[in-house]
């Protein structure tokens, strides 16, 4: 958003009238799903009225600009909003399994949707080695992201367990003894679980480990690469199956169907002494922060976005369908003109046959309100040769080096606002407390007064101290509040945090960021 547009919006708000028209220069952002109001009831209607009366109507809700658009947030209020979901966890350097690859991690979320459709997970593997971190970006509702955030780390951890450890789990289940813990979770107090589906999730996780026990090849467990790949695919298959089979009660059944018809992208990192493995499906992202010899910071992407900007991904999708569909598989930068990410969990509307979709929705009790579950009788255009979507993750392995200092995991709401290099610089300067300022070059000495003023504004912005102790909060603050010269603009930040819930989603996405600080001592040569 340019400073001119930002100032224009604030000026309009100060007169207590919000004017939105087709000629407005403050353009709403693109969402993961578009065009079809029947597809997702959280989509914002384009028919906004009441411009001249100091009030307006949006999606059937009447909002007063005097009541809802408070652009006078003070610093305390801004900090309260930004920090309400932040989390900081220090990790013991040593445990009974050796040296930890992670020193600590910091995480935060800022919703635009109500409720938030992003989820995050973090846990230590107790029956194998390493830590798992995940960021999940839901679409079509939060149901799929919620289920995946609860379950995927369990699937990966179980896959890495040895056959002997899995047999111990099974023996405890058979004899109704307490199970040895698989993961040590790090939950924020606002996190919650699908309690009504817990028994179903445990049953299917048990079926998974029983199959691994029966496999002659399992032995000491899968490698992190194999475990991440298999767990993504297996969980998505279980989500699909659970929506099709009879379940013990109507609530569990409706939840399973809701999870399957919603969707979620996922980016999961396993951090261990052998390095970092990142599995990505969709458009979340993992970026490594590297401290160079000259003291500068550089970004090393460990994922590639699975969207229409990725030409290799576009070719992969098109190659799976007849040549006659090359022009319709992806249109307007979206899968079948609807979905922005090209890989995802759930989203059975892009995976199942039309007949199976109708059959499953018809299996719900007649009294169930499909709209309340974000479920609609809708088929994407040109739906000829399903499946059009899968969850198969792209996996990267990176061996830790002394210069590798931190890993940033973020949902696309973060990367919509910040580039890789900018995000790494922000965290790097936050970590070191040093805000680099280059000397004035000979060419800069010849600048005109106005140009020099702009340069000094940029440098002053870089020299300003951090307002947040949590690096994830620091990222989110800058993602929403950075001005044209790299300075933190209080006016811009206030604007973005003051938008009412029905309007916020038009101008920003849910943002989730997790910063994992690495133990660089692991990669240093050991001297006696």
UniProtKB/TrEMBL annotation:
<feature type="domain" description="PPM-type phosphatase">
    <location>
        <begin position="102"/>
        <end position="518"/>
    </location>
</feature>
<dbReference type="InterPro" id="IPR036457">
    <property type="entry name" value="PPM-type-like_dom_sf"/>
</dbReference>
<dbReference type="GO" id="GO:0005739">
    <property type="term" value="C:mitochondrion"/>
</dbReference>
<dbReference type="GO" id="GO:0046872">
    <property type="term" value="F:metal ion binding"/>
</dbReference>
<keyword id="KW-0378">Hydrolase</keyword>
<comment type="similarity">
    <text>Belongs to the PP2C family.</text>
</comment>
<dbReference type="GO" id="GO:0004741">
    <property type="term" value="F:[pyruvate dehydrogenase (acetyl-transferring)]-phosphatase activity"/>
</dbReference>
<protein>
    <recommendedName>
        <fullName>PPM-type phosphatase domain-containing protein</fullName>
    </recommendedName>
</protein>
<dbReference type="InterPro" id="IPR001932">
    <property type="entry name" value="PPM-type_phosphatase-like_dom"/>
</dbReference>
<keyword id="KW-0479">Metal-binding</keyword>
<dbReference type="Pfam" id="PF00481">
    <property type="entry name" value="PP2C"/>
</dbReference>
<dbReference type="InterPro" id="IPR015655">
    <property type="entry name" value="PP2C"/>
</dbReference>
<keyword id="KW-0904">Protein phosphatase</keyword>
<dbReference type="InterPro" id="IPR000222">
    <property type="entry name" value="PP2C_BS"/>
</dbReference>
